[in-house]
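Quick note —
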Amino acid sequence: MKYHILVFGCQFNKADAEKISQLLLKKGYSQSPTPDGADLVIVLVCSVRQKSVDKVVNKIKNLKLKMKNHNPKLKIIATGCVLDSDKKMFEKLDVEIRKFQDIEKFPPARNASQRTGSRSDAGGPLTGLITIGKGCNNFCSYCVVPYTRGREKYRSQTAIAKEAAGLIKKGVKEITLIAQNVNSYPNFVGLLQKITALNGDFKVKFLTNHPKDFSDKLIAEMAKNPKIIKYVHLPFQTGDNAILKKMNRKYTRQDYLKLIAKIKKAMPAVVITTDIIVGFPGETEKQFQRTVEVMKKVNFKQAFIAKYSPRSGTAAFRLKDTVPLIEKQKREQILLGLIKNE
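Predicted structure written out below.
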């Protein structure tokens, strides 16, 4: 029995996809390079923005249409970030919704022997992802993650270190720790110290960080620990305090710039990247220019810029989407131009 995995969205879905792939291989399934040759297609859904959900739905519709005659018995399962309000939509497409832990209970493939390895073992992967926790307690007004992934739940240091040791043994040279707010992990510095104390030639990085939990202790550990990559992904979303408050981000523009100054002082060669939303409800041209000012002051190496789109189920959905799409596109291009002109 063959499977294919379609991944949409963030690093969490990519990490889950790799785990699902390893699980199915061990149960005797084989991997198909395309959906066309698969008996089972698993879709890792991203629900952060409505545009993301629309993209997933269109992909599934096109796949079902294409496979109608070629493979009418194709089974499609959706997992990842799925809002309760979207479940009926997927069910109408004859897509089964499963939580990640339910996929772990998959029966072995029929007429197939158990496998002991995974596709990634043979190639000697250079990088590896470790999910240290899932969920979010912050409830940013534009985000559905607390509703799809639940509240923050973290794995033990022992379990995480054991997984890291396994990756190092396989030859992984760069380990990335991921969580919705990775630096919100209880005693995150202690976790970093435990992992970097493992024997082997490897380095560690982590994402995504929340500015409110980026402590002086963490900065100091990053600066002095040679096994930690000097890279910080630190979303600021907008440079205007009034919009930050509407977003429920729990910090100000001044807080963010002060934190950046500390990081750069401790690590002059640090690489800093960020996330930004343009066109949040009520954002004026003057407020947008404050975002431009932050971009110029920080000099980010890269910025992931999203045009705001209303998302059912979030607090911001109740706000009027006042910024026209053409203006959002214009603001996006202005910010991208600042990165290109470094």
